[in-house]
Structure formats: structure tokens, C-alpha cells
Amino acid sequence: MLFGVTADSEGPTNGAVLAPQLVLCAVEAPLAEVWREVADDRPRITVHPGSVFDLDVDAVVSPANSYGWMRGGIDALYARAFPHVEQNVRSAVLALHGGELPVGEALVVPTGVPAPAWLISAPTMRTPGERLPGDTVHPYLAARAVFRLWRDGRMEDGTPVWRAVRAMAMPGLGTGVGGVEPKTCARQVAAAWDEVFGGATTRP
């Protein structure tokens, strides 16, 4: 089984700044509306006003908790769709982080299905069901972790994450159980994208 390394790991990009194809997903209109503002000036980002499960992508983003439990919100849907993915996440969190993946870091694990082949776990909260405060920066930290993992991370076999994951789908980060306002989430995801991929080109 291949586990991805965390967002702090480094992988060479031959001097090029790359960016993935990112699909921002929303099943509710308020989030879809602010996602469109994020995508307007960022050509590698598109918006899907529907479920992540509608898409043919290489990876989906899980706005997880630090312990890898997938029992609520979109994570519960992932766990039902990919029966082994919760155990894969929890095993990776234990192996790589001693059982707790901090907010601001991310890892990638196989889903066990052909597509999407990968799930990127990026905690938006430490404990399951945590309500986030209005001034939280956790969506930014989670999004930045996902983008840095994509850009710099390597799989266990040495494959750069950006080679394995060409396109990924991202739901709202903290907008469900966490209670984050859609505008707050969108603004922070945009800031994280610009920080990591400012001046980015498409992959080679």
C-alpha cells in the first residue's frame, strides 16, 4: 500500500512552479457562488455545483479531523463510498504522525477504487465534530497543506504527488460540521492557492 508523505516533505519540480486542475465542489448555492469568485481569475480552477462524486478526478480532498475518524459530513460519505479509506487514513496518521495529524498538514492515501484513486486528508479540526470559531484560519491551513502536498510531496515509491494526481476535487473546508461561513472558506482557499501557486504554469 502506498502512503503519501506530508505537506512538509520536499520534492523537486525542476525549477517550474506547477498547478493542478482543481475542481471546487458545492452542493449548496451559497458555497457555489463564492467558489465562482475564487475561480474567476484562476484558470486552473473550475467550479462544480454538485457532489465530488459526480467527477472523474484523480483525488478528492477530505476536510478531516486530526485523528482520521471519518464518521460525519463529507467524510462519512467518503467512508461509505470507499470502504477501506478510513483505515488507510488512520494507519497513515499513526505511522507518520504518531496518531494525530495536525491542522496545517496533509497526507494522501489510496481509496481502494480505480477513480478517484487517491484521497487527500487535510484536517480542518482537531477533534471530530468540533465547531470552529468565526475567526478561524483552519480552511486556509488545510488548503495550503493540500496544495503544498501536491506540489512538493512524494509517494512512498518516490513518485511525485503531482504526477499521480493531475486533477482533484475539493468540497467546502469546514463549512459543514465546522460551521465556517462559505465566504470565509472561499477567501482562505484563494489565499492559500495564491501563496502556493502564484505565477504557476500547467504541469509539464
From TrEMBL:
Database matches in InterPro entries: Macro_dom, Macro_dom-like
All copies of domain Macro, residue ranges: 32-204
Pfam families named in the record: Macro (PF01661)
Domain of life: Bacteria
Gene3D superfamilies in alphabetical order: Leucine Aminopeptidase, subunit E, domain 1
Descriptive protein name: Tail protein
Organism (species): Longimycelium tulufanense
